[in-house]
Design goal:
This protein has helices at about 25-35, 55-70, 85-100, 120-130, 150-160, 175-180, 195-200, 215-225, 230-250, 255-265, 285-295, 300-310, and strands at about 5-10, 40, 75, 105, 135-140, 165, 190, 205-210. With about 300 residues, the protein is of the alpha/beta class. It has a single domain (about 5-230), classed as Aldolase class I (TIM Barrel), CATH 3.20.20. An eight-stranded parallel beta sheet has the order 3-2-1-8-7-6-5-4. α2 (about 55-70) links the parallel β2 and β3 (about 75). α2 (about 55-70) runs parallel beside α3 and α5 packs parallel to α6 (about 175-180). The longest helix is centred in the last third of the chain and has 18 residues, at about 230-250. The chain is globular, with a radius of gyration of 19 Å. The two termini are about 35 Å apart. The mean pLDDT is about 95.
Length: about 300
């Protein structure tokens, strides 16, 4: 397998009207990652809609992902952020018991305007890791409502050797540079593809990208060209990814929506079951405009999906 990995916070496929897990569609969706040799973070609160899932449903998708992918690709878990250490531990143990490789553990959620102090974050992780001797990642992701400093992440890594990875999203390359400077030991750092050309050369372990839910082959092409030293080729694929990301911006505040919209308009596994509340699938006119705009980007993998769906 490639030395550089991409880990996608992958979507969850639901049954009709969002009821239940469509297990067959989920297996088909996972095989798109296996074919492209890309890794997974299963059960994410955003792209995976896990805040709207029961413990039994989470256990189901962890089990299926391990069955289908373990030994072929990286299969990790990304349980939704919780407000207390006890709830976080409960969800993390559920993922560990299923046999995933690493469990990403967010800090306490910022419900009702809560913004934890550094002392509160340290105490939170102390409480979790005291009872969780399992490989873990942390993610100072501003989407949870605040951004722990690089120094705080380094302090957590110094104290808790379960932490084997740090996932950066929504952060500039300067955060990565500072984190590398202050980390007390080697920890794998995963970065958004937008900063990859700089941060991979500075020691990033791999990439994160929810867009891989829809264009996994394009991400594989990007990694392959980078590893082959084909800078010009990697830059061309990067331009395709950036065009796609820019096009998706009107829907990017709700990552499950644009993923499920894409799966729906091109008839890919997971598109038929749609979204769960509070998300709503747009009407037919918006979906058609969405599809036409995607085809107009002239990205090879998108064109392939359009042809398979019978679109010109």
């Amino acid at each position: 397998m490639s030395e550089i990995n991409l880990l996608c916070r992958n979507a969850t496929t639901f049954g009709a009207n969002g009821i239940g897990i469509d297990e067959d569609a989920f297996r088909q969706h996972l095989h798109r990652f296996i074919e492209s040799r890309l890794g997974l973070y299963v059960g994410s609160a955003g792209s995976g809609e896990s805040h709207a899932m029961t413990r039994e449903e989470l256990a189901t998708i962890y089990r299926i992902a391990v069955q289908e992918g373990k030994g072929k690709i990286t299969v990790n878990a990304n349980p939704p952020e919780q407000h207390t250490a006890a709830m976080t531990l409960e969800h993390s143990l559920l993922a560990a018991e299923a046999g995933v490789g690493i469990v990403n553990i967010y800090g306490p959620s910022s419900w009702h305007g809560f913004k934890p102090t550094d002392e509160e974050i340290l105490a939170f992780y102390d409480d979790v890791f005291r009872q969780f001797p399992y490989p873990a990642a942390i993610a100072p992701n501003p989407i949870i409502g605040y951004t722990p400093s690089a120094e705080l992440c380094a302090a957590l890594c110094a104290k808790h050797h379960q932490i084997v990875a740090i996932n950066l999203a929504g952060l500039a390359g300067s955060y990565f540079v500072r984190l590398k400077d202050v980390l007390p030991r080697d920890v794998d750092i995963f970065v958004p593809y937008q900063t990859a050309l700089e941060t991979l050369s500075l020691g990033a372990r791999g990439l994160l990208g929810a867009e891989a839910n829809i264009v996994p082959k394009t991400f594989r092409a990007y990694i392959d060209r980078y590893e082959a030293g084909d800078v010009a080729g990697a830059a061309r694929v990067y331009a395709q990814l950036q065009k796609l990301t820019d096009y998706l911006k009107p829907w990017h505040r709700s990552s499950p929506k644009w993923i499920k919209m894409y799966l729906k308009v091109f008839g890919l596994p997971g598109g038929a079951g749609g979204l769960r509340e509070p998300y709503r699938m747009p009407g037919d006119e918006e979906l058609e405009r969405f599809a036409q705009g995607l085809v107009a980007l002239d990205i090879p993998e998108v064109n392939e999906h359009a042809r398979q769906a019978g679109r010109r």
